[in-house]
Amino acid sequence: MSKYELCVVLNAKMEDEARAAELERVKELITRFGGTVTNVDDWGKKRFAYEVQKMKEGFYYFIQFDAEPTTPYEIENRVRIMENVVRYLVVKQNEA
Fold first, then answer.
1. pTM
2. Left if phi > 0, otherwise alpha if psi is -120 to 50, otherwise beta: which for 68?
3. Which of 17, 21, 26, 33 would you label with 10, given CA atoms 20 to 30 Å apart?
4. Does any domain span residue 89?
């Protein structure tokens, strides 16, 4: 199992409950494909450097998880089509 980090930027116009539900959906995707969520950092609402999909800000979440090498690919395929996800990125963390 390798360590990964998923950065998800959610639409800033979402209600708190809807945003929490969307974050839960992302965490469920990780566990469905055999990953284990180890930490979730909520960075809150941040302003973008430039407009993205006619939005100027979004909510940032960083999710650390352990998973097999095929899991990030599966997660990216599902997160890519989620309506309220503005941006996402999965990176492999260095084994220190």
1. 0.89
2. beta
3. 33
4. yes
Please give the residue range of the domain that contains residue 33.
Answer: 15-50+65-96
SS3 content of the chain, % helix, strand, coil (to 5): 25, 50, 25
Q: What is the pLDDT of residues 46-95, one digit of tens each?
A: 999 999 888 999 999 999 999 998 889 999 999 999 999 999 999 998 87
- Asked if the structure places residue 32 within a domain, the reply is yes
Q: Give the count of domains, the chain.
A: 1
Distance CA 88, CA 5 (A): 10
Q: What distance in Å separates the CA atoms of residue 27 and residue 40, rounded to the nearest whole number?
A: 9
* Residue recorded with tokens 């090498």: 69
